[in-house]
Amino acid sequence: MSEFIMKRKDNYWWEVTLVKLGKPFIIFLTHTSVTPNMITLINLIIMLPLICLMAWEKSFFALALMVQIYMFLDIVDGNLARNKHMQSELGKKLDVISDTLFYTVGYFFIGLGVEAPIGVVLMAILVQHFYGMIATYYIVPKIRKLEVFKHTRLKKFFIDRDILFGMDASLETLITSVLLLTSIRKYIYIVCPVLWMLDLIYRLYELNWVNRYNVKG
């Protein structure tokens, strides 16, 4: 492999950190028979059940570590696919299945483990999925209709440094792992949904106000 290819040019802060940490491992894997789908299946078949088990057993240190390993492997599989030129429809579907189960079943079990109210846990999970639906079916299609997408000064400051500003799945896992090591671990289900909603409001403001006159044709 002549040059390391990142999955995306711009990444969120914790995602960038994990990519940098994983780069030597990813480069090593490019010279092996390991495929991206194998990494995804490790997450789906091994890591997710372990996360649920650690949550059920209330082994919070192990759980915090497992959550980060899951996120690390999730980033490895995407970047490995790029660097081995092995992107596939099957890989995309497996990734969606794995992540959907992690952020629903996995986070439900984590909620049980930290003894957060079930209603709060379910609401937090729904908020993240709501964010994903709005981003996928409204924000992204509308951005594609714009001649040039303008960012706020705050976001541009970070983009100029190849970092995306805002809430994302990697930051959610970081917050989860950090709070799992504290006595306020149940606040995962307050902090994360609030940050998802603030990020959604910010993105909608950026799209519909900052770019209100910026439409193709």
UniProtKB/TrEMBL annotation:
Transmembrane stretches, start-end: 41-73
One Gene Ontology term, aspect cellular component: membrane
Keyword list, A-Z: Membrane, Transferase, Transmembrane, Transmembrane helix
One GO-annotated biological process of the protein: phospholipid biosynthetic process
GO molecular function: phosphotransferase activity, for other substituted phosphate groups
Signal peptide: none
Family per record: Belongs to the CDP-alcohol phosphatidyltransferase class-I family.
Name under which the protein is recorded: CDP-alcohol phosphatidyltransferase
